[in-house]
# Entry
Amino acid sequence: MKLSEIKEILNAEVLVGGDELDREVFSACGSDLMSDVLAFVKDQALLLTGLVNGQVIRTAEMMDIHAVIFIRGKEPTAEVLNLAESREMVIMKTDLPMYPACGRLYAAGLAGGSVRS
# Structure
């Protein structure tokens, strides 16, 4: 699914990387625990989180995640946005809570991005 479609589905605002909305993601993960993201997320996923700090960007980079959506209207700091921009990530925010945001994406056909061993 293209990030431009995800933006529309979640009524999201693009904060960084607006010129990269033609990127495709193949799965999504919703988590506020970056340890879970490290343990269970596949590459080329979209991360939805309410955590708004640099750890999110660094974790996403490690897991080859190129797009992060902050939920519940959370506002990342300029420092977080600058870090994401330097890593060429797309950052969006939506007013939706985690469950409805993930549900809308799942209903639109985006697969879940986590695996268990």
Observations:
- Residues 71 and 94 are 5 Å apart (CA to CA).
- The two ends are 26 Å apart (CA to CA).
- Helices lie at 3-9, 34-40, 54-62, 78-86, 98-107.
